[in-house]
Csc1-like protein erd4 (Thalictrum thalictroides), 1182 residues
Amino acid sequence: MLWKAYNHVSELRGTALSAPDVIMPEQYAIVVRDIPAVPKTRKDRKDQVDSYFKSLYADEFYDSLVITDNTEVNIIWEDLTKYRNKLAHAEAKFAASKTRTRPTNKKYFIFGKKFDTIDYCNKMIATLVPKLKKEQQKTIRGKQKDSALIFFTNRKAATSAAQTIHAKKADTWTVGEAPEPRQMLWRNLGLEFYQWQLRQDIVYLIVALTILFYMIPITFITAFTTLEKLKIILPFMSPVVDKAMVKSVLEGSIPQIVLIAFMALLPKFLMFLSRTEGIPSVSRAVRASSGKHFYFIILNVFIGVTIGGTLFSTIKDLQKNPKQIWMLLGKSIPENATFFLSFVALKLFVGYGIELSRPFSFFMFYVNKRFFCRTAAEEKKAWAPGDMNYATRVPNDLLIVTIVLCYSVIAPVIILFGVAYFSLGWLVLRNQALNVYIPSYESYGRMWPHMHARILAALIIYQFTMIGAFSLKQFYYAPLVIPLPILSIAFAIVCRRKFYYSFCHTPLEVVCAEMRETPNLRAIYKEFIPPCLRSEYPDEEAQPVPDASSASLLQPPEYKDLIKSVEEKESQSLISNLWGPTPETEASNSV
Amino acid sequence: MLWKAYNHVSELRGTALSAPDVIMPEQYAIVVRDIPAVPKTRKDRKDQVDSYFKSLYADEFYDSLVITDNTEVNIIWEDLTKYRNKLAHAEAKFAASKTRTRPTNKKYFIFGKKFDTIDYCNKMIATLVPKLKKEQQKTIRGKQKDSALIFFTNRKAATSAAQTIHAKKADTWTVGEAPEPRQMLWRNLGLEFYQWQLRQDIVYLIVALTILFYMIPITFITAFTTLEKLKIILPFMSPVVDKAMVKSVLEGSIPQIVLIAFMALLPKFLMFLSRTEGIPSVSRAVRASSGKHFYFIILNVFIGVTIGGTLFSTIKDLQKNPKQIWMLLGKSIPENATFFLSFVALKLFVGYGIELSRPFSFFMFYVNKRFFCRTAAEEKKAWAPGDMNYATRVPNDLLIVTIVLCYSVIAPVIILFGVAYFSLGWLVLRNQALNVYIPSYESYGRMWPHMHARILAALIIYQFTMIGAFSLKQFYYAPLVIPLPILSIAFAIVCRRKFYYSFCHTPLEVVCAEMRETPNLRAIYKEFIPPCLRSEYPDEEAQPVPDASSASLLQPPEYKDLIKSVEEKESQSLISNLWGPTPETEASNSV
């Protein structure tokens, strides 16, 4: 089944990538990092990059876009956007108001001086716009990083360029496929290779420590949040807390609340770590985060609960008789079968109900619509269901796979719950994927190899558990199952060899088909310009290789243009978020 | 120093590969393996390959050459060559003979019927030539494998094609850089990926067993070759053997002779294993064989002698107190310092003397010239010095590096011998490389990363030994050297990242320079046809895409042409062997 699924996903990926009627901007671009210092013979970074790639790809090179450090310009741009949204909100409120009272604000949310919102926002926008322009010019000319996006005139050239070593010193001019414009992590694109590597090592260390010692701060905080301590910190609470019923409820629930709060923080923390690692695209950060989450829950939930309190005594046993290691899981599992049986059942009966009815989103949308939304854009934003959130969904489902497989030897009834969980899941999530959630990026099935590897890992853990359980029961034919894990590992290697590389890189075969329409290269180029810099890049269709820094000085864009472009961008992205997935995303949803 | 050396070799490699005045046929070709079965819409394998690559590389594709199973045609061709050489030899002998006696042969070397050599050879050649032609046609049409060589019209296209994934199923149409024509292992080019992988695993297993248990058959045979046993097997020897002096010499030397014989067999055995592995080029097989030899001598000579007889007792100690593992080498090394000191001294004083004077080659050349050589070609062959034989030279020198580094802590005088060994070696081998040996292939410095990694490994072993020795002596500042191995490992990672990949693949940068002359693509194509099939491929310069099988039927080459082509090939290769290295090989020799 895994083989068939891999084959199927691989086919779908090939079909989606080679679609002749969808223009994917990322297929025309590559990312190049670790560009050496600008030589004296070259005017600037862009000149250097252009001449390098022109010499290598005389016919196929189209243009380049140097990565800049946008931290500051981004702050200003976000401020501007915030005030523009506030202004639109206030204007809509004013227009709807029957008493024609102008909406007002206070300086510090509910304290401070009162002032007119519309005037205030207009004033702020008027000061921010020239500031943004100045910062944009400064960024484009002065804050260039050692990376660039290179655009090619056809997909084949870009695909093979992304896979070829360019420089004699292999750690300079390193290339890679460009991420989709909408999921680019611009800040990480500018990182040097060694910095990236170092960050990765540090993040792995932090994750390992987190996995091993996550229970320690929880225990620590639980110890400090006893009722007695609470009474000292918040003395006005003591009359309430002293009541017998309240006291018993609180005493029982405080550790649970702390645990739930920490577990809720975990995905955010892991996502933050994955972004800090230096990963250039959102989809890859999600995969990295999902992987970390998987290790976390396998070790802390599955292994933790299974071996649990007996861990230390078990290690002592192991030292006496090292052969016992194979029997460890087989011995511990029967004791915890009931716990995991109810765990899967809970997930099955409650989890999918919540998933289908989405009570929290439902509630929040009506609250937002009733009290906070004034403009159409705000209403659309409140309605937007978001995407599937693979970063937590995938590891949780993989945990169920692991539990069901491992406990199937001892408590076969768990298989029924497992089958029900994944059958219902197929129906529910198919509906959610096709009709509810809207993908905010597209990785063309790259999540599958990640899941495949972890399902196989679960299978191998299960096979070892089975060997352990059979040995414990002194089952006569137990040695017959020993080849199973070896076969699983061989299968993993063959799968990796057969499919994995075409998920890492785009095969040349899939991009050799001619496009139905000749793509507009200027539009593709503009897709990659980050929104906060967009107004600084010229609009002319005819200009073949624009020198961004000088062009912006010659033809300063109008104030009106800036506002228009920001508005367009915003409404476009909202529309695409709201009015369903594009054909390319549908292809992958049906996986 | 390692950094500077890597940098230097990397520069030399880049310069040699981008030389604008040397045409390297392998830069215009790639190897493609694991081609799927021929679809029904295609005439044959060549048609399938051509149409596939034409669709991907419309302008750059030039031609393809399907790999065939040449086992049988090669046997016939070698027979033919043997008889042709014999004929030339006999004719030269006849011409030089003053008595005008025709040279004769006996059927089984010195027994059997006597017959006239010239007549016999002529008869054999006359029967073999049509047989060869028939077998050639059969091979080209019927024995096609799943691999092919693809030729491109320019170097850039070939370089990026060799690094790009082509097919959706990444285990079909797998590509790689083509080896030099003169070092192609044609038989291995036809292997499928999984077969190659399996062979590699089996070979690794055999090598591991060989390394661990090589002493066992030696001991076994030594036990069976005592004088008493010899007397039973060869009873006529007993009068000689019974003499006291002969007896004592024989008793002392038999184990040594057996050991020397086994050690002399080892490189041939390892080279045989490396070729069986499925490696497509001679240079890579030499590297693989050198690697195996390195592990062998480090484990059997260095570790074997150092820990030696105390191995089993040491393991028992370790079980009692596992912390001792760091002190193991530090403790054993002082006991063997004298042995290795004399080992290095012997290598230094005797080894380079033999290397410079080459007494065996000198003797063999004069014996051959006096008694066996009749033709000019035979004389040239007897004179040819061969190549450097990296497969045994490199691991032996790396053993000296390891010994000198590790023993420098205990017996610092070994450093003097080490410095003398490598200084003299620099002088001697520079002379040998430039003036004596003739490289039979060119890998453009790919041996260096292999050596670099092993020098670093020696350095790390040395650093651990040092820590062990310092701990044993309870040296107060010993912990200060603990960061050294960590730094060495970090250095290895940085070096690998910076340089290694441009040794694995050709960087695009180095092949983007224009060639001084437009290469003759037909000549490049013909370079890759194996000698035993050469006469079956058409000679026409004008024909752009020859269909080998049909063309050979339409224009059967003349008998004379065949002999001429064989002769030309032979004398050309001899001339190039004898009259010095080509410019491209000189570039790498000066490394």
Summary: Residues 294 and 395 of chain B are 5 Å apart (CA to CA). Strands of chain B lie at 29-33, 61-68, 104-108, 111-116, 144-152, 174-177.
